[in-house]
Amino acid sequence: MKVLFLLCLVAAGALAQFSSTGQQGIVDVHNKLRSSIAKGTYVAKGTTQKSGANIRKIKWDATVATSAQNYANTCPTGHSQGSGYGENLYWSWTSGTPSALDSYGPAASASWEKEFQDYGWTSNTLDSATFNSGIGHATQMAWANTYAIGCGVKNCGKDASMSNMVKIAVVCQYKTPGNYMGQAIYQQGATCSACPSGTSCESSSGLCV
């Protein structure tokens, strides 16, 4: 079975079609990345990143998911406008007939995270060079102040422009948005040493909850 995928990102109602299992898979991929950064164990293309002092734990948000699903239902070709959320997009084409869509959420998340492995992560400040290096999906995943995610998925049917392969669209939206130019992706320092007001350290993950 032939599979192709394409990614798209943005700088800072229908019911969700991801089941609870699919939702948890997406959250887990995000928090695994965030936890490893927080603990100072994350290696991006051979370089270990400094530990994070203020990285929040991501949770699923039904309201954000409804927004993401509504947009996914349009089979988008580019980013939404004015949602107020951060946004990562993913498209996959397959010659088969997908029997379930849950796997596409974690697959999209893993593809976004892989940008750190493919292109490296040389600056903790999001400047134009960093954003344009190809890691913008991954930096949104890692953005310390983001604390909620919601995603939608849509089987868009056969795509004539891609030899009639079936197109699947995934939209993930983030609250609060990340990827603000000129800002730090996270605060470097001892794990959990600068958790935002109203949060505390979860020692097992090193994230602020």
From TrEMBL:
Top-level taxonomic group: Eukaryota
Protein's name in the database: SCP domain-containing protein
Keyword annotations of the record: Signal
Signal sequence bounds: 1-16
Pfam families xrefs: CAP
Keyword Signal recorded: yes
SCP domain location: 21-182
Keyword Ion transport applies: no
